[in-house]
Amino acid sequence: MGYPRKLTRRFRAFDNFAISFTIINIISGIFSSFGFGMNAGGPSILVFGWIGVSVMVLFVGASMGEIASAYPTSGALYFSAGKLAKRHRGAWSWYTGWLNFVGQVGGTAATNFAAATFIQAFISMQWPSYQATAQHTVAITAVILLIQALANTYTVQLVAVLNRISVWWLLVGMVIIVLTLVLIPTHHQPASFVTHFANNTGFTSGLYGGMLGLLVTSWTFTGFDGSFHMSEETVQATVNAPRGIMRAIAYSAIAGLILMLALIYAIRDYAHEASATAPPVQILIDALGAGTAKLLLLIVIGAMLFCGLANMTSNTRQIFAFSRDGAMPGSRWWHSVSPRTRTPVKAVWLAAACPLVLVIPGWWSHTAFTAIVSVNVVGLFLAYGVPIFLRLRLNDFQPGPWNLGRYGKLVAGVAVAWIVISNVLFMLPQASPITPASFNYAPIALAVVLLIATVWWFATARRRFQGPVSYGSPDEVAAMDLI
User: Fold this and answer.
1) Domain boundaries, the chain
2) Which of 430, 426, 421 is nearest to 442 (CA)?
3) Taking a C-beta distance cutoff of 8 angstroms, is the pair 103, 376 a contact?
4) Comparing C-alpha atoms, which of 302, 314, 358 is closest to residue 142?
């Protein structure tokens, strides 16, 4: 790929799968967005929307996996965009890299903020006198980011071990939650309840409300590019990285559907629980009692913390690679590697500081925080879509060992179509009446990001950044290997 090797290959096939599986994180995703789905379509959209969107995301993952096999680098999306573009390679790479960076920063911020929110919910259940506040949420988020940065700083091996643990935490935790919801409650909804439709979005169109409900699954299925970003630290990355992407999506789809069904059939009072501050937590309390609900809430919190850790790891590698090509301010700092731990330590702390900056407005306004992190999913999926779109236009694409053969362009076409549709949905109003508190700020946040990237590009970047840098021929690069 034209780079001297700085990072050690300590990630096995399972470790590579684990990072994407952990970032997708069905427990974190479903518990964070289940309440929105109850009001935007209800059980019918939560279940059948989950199935449909999962299939579409598999198309995205398959096309990304084919590209990952051809270009297994930490730069991942922005690197492959620069290589696949016929013209203006620097610009394609620049915009893809910044969309990916902003999306990942927003993902780390949103996941850890959600974890802090659920931690406060647990504390409030345990000690009723405790008053949950926005200021406490921000402070807890800062502590979480600090701990995750220390874990990423110490060694790649520790992160790999934690990601292995996280897979079993998710799977065993899901089994415990599902079995508890199936066996303990004395009342379950009838089988036909899965077809129940609810539209409490405020919009009169049930079709529109149901389409918004598809966002629950889209919110959950983000971050599977983590396997791509860890390519330079994965053995046999041309095969194991795409397999990690596909397995993470497929296993998450199956396990998530089971968890979704368990929560839906455990619902007692739909209207009461749908209007609760944390609907899935209220479902657990109503169905199982406060004591059991608290124990299950610990599983949910643990899943969110693992998700935030994996998000930061993936973001760090993207920062490292983007800086290696001189595309970030202070690039010389961010792509340096610690000789002791063999990790990009400075990039780790940048990956911790940026989410904290996004979280700070939550000290005063939850709406302001939501406006900033809403670009997470839009930024990531646009970053996913650019190299897939460029691969679709390229007639002489040279695939790697893992490829889709003659179906590559068809799969890429479906993937691009779904990315366009889902991003349009994410930028539409999601509640009515539209007020400053309910307004969807994703388009504004995305426009600000693109405006800054564009001004920066035409001001200075286009003269110094021409896309991924080559340090020499394969033989010359091999002689530069630092390990």
Assistant:
1) 13-360+377-425
2) 426
3) yes
4) 358
Q: Under a CB-based contact definition with an 8 Å cutoff, are residues 440 and 430 in contact?
A: yes
Q: What is the pTM of this model?
A: 0.87
Nearest to 386 by CA among 56, 84, 59, 70: 84
User: DSSP string of 410-477?
Assistant: HHHHHHHHHHHHHHHHHHS--SSS--TTT---HHHHHHHHHHHHHHHIIIIIHHH--SS---S-HHHH
Which residues in 227-243 are b (16+ Cβ under 10 Å) and which e? bbbbbbbbeebbbbbbb
Single-letter code of the amino acid located at 199? N
Outline where 360-434 has alpha helix (H): 366-373, 375-393, 408-427
Percentage of the chain lying above the pLDDT 90 cut: 45
What is the SS3 assignment for 199?
Answer: strand
pLDDT digits (tens, 9 = 90+) for 135-185: 999 999 999 999 999 988 876 677 778 878 888 999 999 999 999 999 999
pLDDT digits (tens, 9 = 90+) for 355-374: 998 888 878 766 666 666 66
Q: With contact defined as beta carbons under 8 Å apart, do 117 and 137 qualify? A: yes
Residue with tokens 């994410």: 426
The pair of three-digit structure tokens given for residue 45, joined into one six-digit string? 């959209």
pLDDT (tens digit per residue) in 306-330: 989 888 988 888 888 788 777 777 7
Q: Residue 218 in contact with residue 22, Cβ under 8 Å?
A: no
CB 336 within 8 A of CB 346: yes
13-360+377-425 to CATH, choices 3.30.420.40, 1.10.260.40, 1.20.1740.10, 3.30.160.270: 1.20.1740.10
For the chain, the residue count is 483
The Cα–Cα gap between 166 and 182 comes to 24
